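Reminder to self: tokens first, then the designed residues, so the page reads top to bottom the way the pipeline ran.
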């Protein structure tokens, strides 16, 4: 399976047919991983020889727990190798004034594929101009986080028993809750879900509402949506609750952030108001809005998402590397 683009910069590069190609590959990898896990210890687990001799570089200007480790695990499971700089802002030659273009020229002489994260929207696209190998956007400011959205949608698809996309997604009411203004994950999720006619309920403080361009996108694609600040009032209508924390790093002052930090609290009590068959997804990290007491609820899917992320990123690396 080869994906028809050089770089993955935006979720909007996917349409339903491309999504199907990627997810079928991921599902195949998931089945093979499961059967191998029964036979070998995890430390020996390599499900492919595809990556032999190939190198992934992870270059991150922003902190990460899941995305960077997930990309690196994916490449190792494919049989490839990893080079990494998880603190580009302090320990690369950027500190000496090197440009993104020159950094890309250099790293792409060493690696076969690059996963990059940066606090500035558009910086990954700028970097990709200098790269001779595929670049994957691992999050650029409040812009896009396409691989997170892909694994989120894959998690929903899996929960819907891998059925055809129209019935898997089309009948769902998706509640997007939290910092809809600044969350790049939410923006990427809308780009992927817009095709399937699902209904959205947007729950955010008034100051952190979804930007107009994403609402226009929903309208253009005939997706029904409504907006409210009140989670308690609408949680009972959700089939999927997509949580996103208030994005502290995008606020100009600590004081401003503190006004919203605990605006929502998804706890056991709140979950009693939700449907029994609803699921909760979240990109994590969480920061006060999604309580640990919810983790044992079978509807909580956010740690399963983390595992699905490795599979989806394996499929992506396979589809993008030359
Ligand atoms: N979901 C996500 O992007 O998590 P990290 O910031 O830990 O990579």
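Designed residues (322 positions):
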């Amino acid at each position: 399976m080869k994906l028809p683009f050089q770089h993955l910069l935006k979720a909007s590069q996917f349409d339903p047919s491309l999504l199907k190609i990627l997810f079928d590959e991921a599902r195949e990898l998931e089945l093979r991983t499961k059967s191998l896990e029964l036979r070998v210890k995890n430390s020996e687990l390599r499900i492919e020889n595809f990556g032999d001799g190939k190198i992934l570089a992870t270059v991150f200007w922003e902190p990460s727990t899941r995305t960077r480790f997930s990309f690196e695990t994916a490449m190792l499971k494919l049989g490839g190798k990893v080079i990494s700089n998880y603190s580009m802002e302090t320990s690369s030659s950027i500190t000496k004034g090197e440009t993104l273009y020159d950094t890309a020229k250099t790293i792409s002489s060493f690696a076969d594929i690059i996963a990059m994260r940066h606090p500035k929207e558009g910086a990954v696209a700028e970097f990709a101009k200098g790269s001779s190998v595929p670049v994957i956007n691992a999050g650029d400011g409040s812009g896009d986080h396409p691989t997170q959205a892909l694994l989120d949608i894959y998690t929903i698809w899996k929960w819907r028993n891998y059925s055809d996309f129209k019935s898997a997604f089309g009948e769902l009411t998706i509640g997007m809750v939290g910092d809809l203004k600044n969350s790049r994950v939410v923006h990427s999720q809308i780009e992927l879900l817009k095709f399937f006619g699902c209904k959205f309920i947007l729950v955010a403080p008034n100051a952190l509402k979804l930007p107009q361009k994403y609402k226009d996108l929903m309208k253009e694609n005939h997706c029904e949506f409504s907006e409210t600040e009140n989670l308690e009032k609408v949680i009972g209508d959700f089939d999927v609750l997509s949580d996103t924390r208030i994005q502290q790093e995008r606020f100009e002052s600590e004081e401003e952030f503190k006004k919203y930090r605990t605006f929502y609290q998804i706890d056991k009590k709140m979950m009693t108001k939700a449907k029994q068959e609803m699921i909760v997804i979240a990109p994590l990290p969480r920061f006060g809005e999604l309580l640990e007491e919810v983790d044992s609820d079978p509807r909580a899917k956010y740690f399963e998402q983390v595992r699905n992320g490795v599979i989806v990123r394996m499929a992506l690396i396979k589809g993008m590397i030359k």
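The longest helix spans residues 16-37.
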